[in-house]
User: Fold this.
Amino acid sequence: MDKKSARYRIEYLRNELGEHNYRYYVLADPVISDREYDRMMNELIRLENEYPDFFDPSSPSQRVGSDISREFIQVSHKYPMLSLGNTYSREELAEFDKRIRKAVAGNFEYVCELKYDGVAISLTYVDGVLRRAVTRGDGEKGDDVTSNAKTVRSIPLKLRGNNYPADFEVRGEILLPGEGFERLNRERAERGENLFANPRNAAAGTLKIQNSSLVARRPLDCIIFGILGDDLPFDLHYENLQKAREWGFKISEETMKFDGLDGVFDFIDHWDRQRVHLPFDIDGVVVKLNDFRLQRQLGYTAKTPRWAISYKFSAERSASRLQSVQFQVGRTGAITPVANLEPVLLAGTIVKRASLHNEEQMKLLDIHEGDTVYVEKGGDIIPKIVGVDKKARPQTSKPVNYISECPACGTLLIRVEGEARHYCPATDTCPPQILGRIEHFVSRRAMNINMAEATVKLLVDKGLVKDVGDLYSLREEDVVQIERFGPKSSRNLIKSIENSKDLPWHRLLYALGIRFAGETVARKLAAAFPSVDLLMGAGVEDLLEVDEVGEKIASSIVDYFSKEGNRIIIKKLREAGVNMQQSPDTPSQTEGILAGNKFVISGTFDHHSRDQLKALIEQNGGVNISAVSSNVDYLIGGSGIGPSKLKKARELNIPVISEDEFIDMINH
Ligand code: IVH
Assistant:
């Protein structure tokens, strides 16, 4: 392809991808498959790499972020970012309406919007291109988080059409939808990291990560609720928002106009009931005057506009009585205190149990027997106790003490420094841990064996299964003996066990339930160590080379395989014929020109960012590794290459190649 055709093609792909991105993330109405989208994105990245002259910071390829970590620079807001006055009752809202009517002659319109519970952002566009994204900060000055905001797919990098103002600002809320929040917390729990309390904290924390490629992995969303500028199309808020939708912004579909309080009250009642069905959290409704002239006329107090107000929903919180506290033992031995409550209605469901998290939290709450407690449902599905009504406490009631021994097996509990939870160390003998490990092993995302929890318990109670390795020596004659099993269901169970033998290696690795080795980590480990033998032979140092594997995970893996009992399990699984190696059709290892080759990148490069190089490695079947060791096939060196990496590569005779040599490699 000559340079001119490449340029046309790059432009074509950027437009197409921009359009499909908008259809997918803003309109939620995609017209092409994810695969087709990825194909075009890969082609664009390849061409942009080949023709670096055509670099454009607003190209859709820039949404992957960069791992260059930078401090945030503080910038002043052109228009201060104010907050809103809050109201909590219809009466207060009626007073707001009265104040408006006193100041305004004639008819006017209210715009009702949802009050998104995320993080405020200001986005500046110059000539249709995103120039800057700034957090609220203290309202006068905020942090420049442009590189992070660029990874948010619903924030347009370039506007659509051509009738937008030359220079203007939009205000909106960055949100983490409930589903993304739960996934993020699940992954954090798997890695033994602290959990985010709610989606707002998670969104705020994400926006402040100083490595935008990590931000890009979190499914942030952005909804726009305000436009500011000198030459906006209308002097009306609602109408400007509708125009902004045409320019490519995500504007809430729920926003409505009313000409009086009746409509506003209906809107509030509707969303107070329906908010549980929204994919993200809202904490109220915002009521604004639509007409900019009236807004200007009413003006501002020191901190808030007089032309807008928020109505806050009462938190999804209920009061109930604590009946007892139960201490659960998880499959990893982690202890969770759980409150048994008198059943209470909370956000549309009956709640009987709520988490008390850990000893510290119980102490903070100073929880007593028979206490009246407040239960809240955050973004998390598990309700939690957030407070105690101490005035309602029965006089004679005693504090609930934390346990020192495992409630299931009596072993003395331990608490690892830096961790909030207690653990039962009797891994091999503690019954709920044994059951939990088998239940995890057979679960859908692990080995997908069709076996109910009750069946697991019966098999263990009857002594037919002691660990996951024993599942594969079960015979139909054994299963048929257990309650509720007939010949047909026994046959099906054995078949389901048989079928699990051929699952990919990373599924087995996840199924083993090694502490801190969740699904994502298992995938990465399986790709870097394509068989159980390689993984078992790996030391902490080798493991640390894998992306996303830190000390905690690495030592947990080594610890697992160092135990005799676990080695016996692996032996049983191997003898049963369970797949324990990367199969030839796993793409990251055997497909692509780099097929399983391991690369370390060091330094900076003329034509690609490090992230672009990493993406190219993965797209071509290679594996990214962070440290040089004998496992590594190539070190790609740029200017400022790490001297210790270079030295080590030379010692180990690992080829050090340039950026151009690498590009040649994948273009052949
Ligand atoms: S308008 C001058 N509209 O609430 C008025 N704010 O307490 C500026 N928020 O920092 C805000 N949803 O982050 C407005 N539909 C909405 C909103 C909204 C959420 C947040 C925003 C702001 C805070 C004000």
User: Anything to note?
Assistant: The domain at 431-500 is CATH 1.10.150.20 (DNA polymerase; domain 1). The radius of gyration is 29 Å.
